[in-house]
């Protein structure tokens, strides 16, 4: 259950990052509210996951999901630059997440 909580926390991190971008510096109400709700839910789920998972593993995977997810959403939904170097960087993050998970046994 800890891994499911951690995965959902990571997805919500992507949600709040995207909605924060859409809030235009917290000047738009709806995206600002989505940002705050998603942040709180993400932190709660991360805290739950940390009951069973080591700090380093949980935090690394949470931020990694957020980083790669935000990168992908930026490219797909916001038209941000997609270059081989940026894809390679995201691939290295994913490789690190896989290694972190495998190291848990």
UniProtKB/TrEMBL annotation:
Gene3D superfamilies: 1.10.3730.20. InterPro entries: EmrE-like, Small_drug/metabolite_transptr, Small_multidrug_res. Pfam families: Multi_Drug_Res. Keywords: Cell membrane, Membrane, Transmembrane, Transmembrane helix, Transport. One of its GO terms (cellular component) is plasma membrane. It is found in: Cell membrane. GO terms for molecular function: transmembrane transporter activity. GO terms for biological process: xenobiotic detoxification by transmembrane export across the plasma membrane. It is a multi-pass membrane protein. The chain crosses the membrane at residues 27-47, 59-79, 85-102. Belongs to the drug/metabolite transporter (DMT) superfamily. Small multidrug resistance (SMR) (TC 2.A.7.1) family. Gdx/SugE subfamily. This is Guanidinium exporter. It comes from Denitratimonas tolerans.
